[in-house]
Amino acid sequence: MGDPVVITCALTGVLATREQCPWVPYAPAEIAEEARRAFEAGAAVVHIHARTPEGGPTFDPAVYAEIRRETEARCPVILNFSTGGSGPMEGRVAHVREVKPAIAALNMGSMNYAKYSARRREFVFDFTFENTFRDISFLLSVMKEAGVKPELESFDLGHTANVAPLLDQGLLEPPLDFNFVLGVLGGARATPSSLLSQAREAQELSPGCTWKALGVSREQWPMVSAALALGGNVRVGLEDNFYLDAAGTQMARSNGELVAKAARMARDVGREPASVGEARRLLSLA
């Protein structure tokens, strides 16, 4: 058990709704309760998108501050706030500037972002996810000023390679932390070979970096397995997947159930879920 794995739990997301899964949390206290369940099951980090009472996305710093207060009253889990979505960059990072989580995630490149139904032979949704270097640089400058560590969300090899000029400019400082998002249509496929390529690219560009992987929907558990075997960290949660089995027949009733399965998988290959203290050390957090 000498190779701990940091388990991150993505509690809410932007697109997941209670119509799809009744246990998706919306209110700050509900999100905090899910953070507690995830922590008690073995997660050291929780990734958070704040929601309105109706379930829509919000970047309101007051809502994020309430989520932080509610979570810290329940457990010592590490907070990771999202900056992903739409709207002006200043609005998408104000909560990071004001509330100062330990980590903030940002997307490392633009891409097509779609979902296709093979059964209906049509796209369920189809849009362009725009993240220019100008916008990435702005987010990084705010995070640096606030003392918040960036988590670099990479959907493809090109996104991973985008760290090079940002390292040269000093907007990014090693050791870097990557999150490889696999299985989104428009990005890299969720395969072990894709994950291995991402991990190699990251280590070549930033030796000593840390990385985690997630697979979207039914790809979650195969990607958890691959990441554990390759020595990486993992992310699970209701943002990415609702089900405890790869076939999609057994819906999880909480984020904690998804984390508990990831923790069991880690122990099965001889890796122990990292404590909060270990995660802070491994991720080079202050």
Description:
By secondary structure, the protein is an alpha/beta fold. It has a single domain, classed as TIM Barrel, CATH 3.20.20.70. The protein has 10 helices and 10 strands. An 8-stranded parallel β-barrel has the order 1-2-3-4-7-8-9-10, surrounded by 6 helices. The chain has a two-stranded antiparallel ribbon with strand order 5-6. Helix 3 (89-99) links the parallel strand 3 (78-82) and strand 4 (103-107). It is globular, with a radius of gyration of 17 Å.
Strand content: 15-25%
CATH topology: TIM Barrel
Q: Can you tell me the CATH class?
A: Alpha Beta
Regions with pLDDT < 50 over 5+ consecutive residues?
none
N-to-C span? 25 Å
- The count of domains is 1
Task: Determine the mean pLDDT.
Answer: 96
Radius of gyration from the alpha-carbon trace, in angstroms: 17 Å
**Main beta sheet:** 8 strands, parallel, barrel
Strand line-up in the sheet with most strands: 1-2-3-4-7-8-9-10
Strand segment tally: 10
CATH architectural group: Alpha-Beta Barrel
What's the quick description here?
Helix content is 38%, strand content 19%. The protein has 286 residues and is of the alpha/beta class.
